[in-house]
Amino acid sequence: MHAIKPLAAAFLLTALLSGCDPAKGGAKAPPHATDTAPTPSQTSLIAVPIDANIASLRQELERTVPRTLWSIDQREKACVPPQRVKVFGRKVKVTPAIPCTIVGQVTRGALRLRGEGQEIVVDVPLNATVAARDVGGVLKGETATGSALAHARIRIDLTADWRMQGKARIRYGWTRAPGIDFLGKRITFTDQADAKLAPVVRDVEREVNREIAKIDIRSQAADIWRQSFTALELNRENPPVWMRVTPQRILFGGFRLDGLRLKLNLGIEGVTETFVSGRPDDPKPTPLPKLVRETPRPRLDIRVPVIADYAQLQPVIDRALAKRATRPFVLPKLGPMMVKFGKSTVYGAPDGRIAVGTDVEARLEARTGEPTRGRIWMTAVPVNAPGSAQVRFTDLVVNGDTNGVGGDLLILIGRSPDFAPLIAEALTQNFSRDLDELEGKIRRAVDQRREGAFVIRTRIDGFETGEIKAYGNGLYLPVRMTGGASVAWRPAR
């Protein structure tokens, strides 16, 4: 290989320095992208149980169901039927029917409410006291006592328009039938008691159904529905993260009774949007929709956008270039060149690219005179492997413009192995550490907290990264979090 003669080198340098004069159509700065990173949204279902206190049902039944359910005072012609014996194959009456007067009453004890499956059970203890007087003019009076337990089983339903309705059916059985022993016979009074209890049972059923209808679920559900159009804080700062909830429908999966509280299994299904910013505006509430009969299966599915502002990348690039400028760049056929770099510019370019521009002052070590000044531009596409926070930059394109002395020289510098790969390496940001910190913050923030009248409990099961992309407002790395969430409405009293 022969050395290049000084005259030929000078000719080559002159050609390089004159190849990209802006006045002759030289390179310009890449255009700025105007798009912004999307606000991620998904559909989530948040469990929102509603409690209804049914203590008023018991109190109202205590008030409306009388303590004395019935009383009796009547003359019976045959308390003891006539006695007959067989004589020559025929039955012959040997004693007449014995009349008596029956007096007594059935009272109830305190009502007890309990849950059993999908039903409310009202236990009604019954006590009977019955006396038979003037039995055939022989028995002056004897008192019989008995007890029974009635069960009002109430099947509750919630209609599509949020009305509570109950269907009560009462059954009872004598645990000890009222009766007396007379002349070796057992005289019971269950028939008389049953006749009197029948209308009482119907009254209790009517009262139960009426009181169930008074339980107001709609107003409480409407309050929760309206309050659910809100934004919940996921992370307070560094960065601030908010989740905005826009309910779409409300699901009903039945109820259970816990003591005197009726717990309805409800869930609000809605769109969850995530913002890395200050608190977003609450969505506008819509009227309470009709109830959907479907078992709520709580699921939290949110996207947390991790956005790297380009201003945060600029000092990283400047430090890398300043460190590299301490050594000369060796250009093929031209020799070593000392290069000084000015403050860089970083922004989003169209087509998902990132643009980096830096001022350059270059001088060949073998030459004197004014240095070449201008700006080098590079664009690249950020990429990452699925599920990885390790970002790299590919498809690098370098161009430049100068003060008219020579743009091609700057392009040679930009395309040298010591420039573009250096910028790409400086731009390569490993988001893993930031993501780990963000995940820990969000887990702590959403574990259990109060937002106004809501107590929010959240469980994060999954945490995964998506595909990075450059937008006009920053590098956007989507992160998906999945789990479950419930919101209990606990307004201040």
How would you summarize what this structure contains?
With 493 residues, this protein is α+β, with helices and mostly antiparallel strands.
Keywords:
single chain; 493 residues; six-stranded antiparallel β-sheet; six-stranded mixed β-sheet; 26 strands; alpha+beta; disordered N terminus
Explain what this protein looks like in three dimensions.
21% of the residues lie in helices and 51% in strands. It is of the alpha+beta class. Strands 1, 2, 13, 14, 15 and 16 form a six-stranded mixed β-sheet that branches. The N and C termini lie far apart (93 Å).
The structure class reads alpha+beta
The radius of gyration computed from the alpha-carbon positions, rounded to a whole number of angstroms, is 44 Å
Number of strands: 26
- Fraction of residues in helices? 10-25%
The shape, in one word, is rod-shaped
Oligomer state equals: single chain
Compute the number of helices: 8
Q: Note poorly predicted spans.
A: 1-26, 402-406
Distance between the termini: 93 Å
Largest sheet: 6 strands, mixed
Beta percentage is over 45%
Rounded mean pLDDT is 76
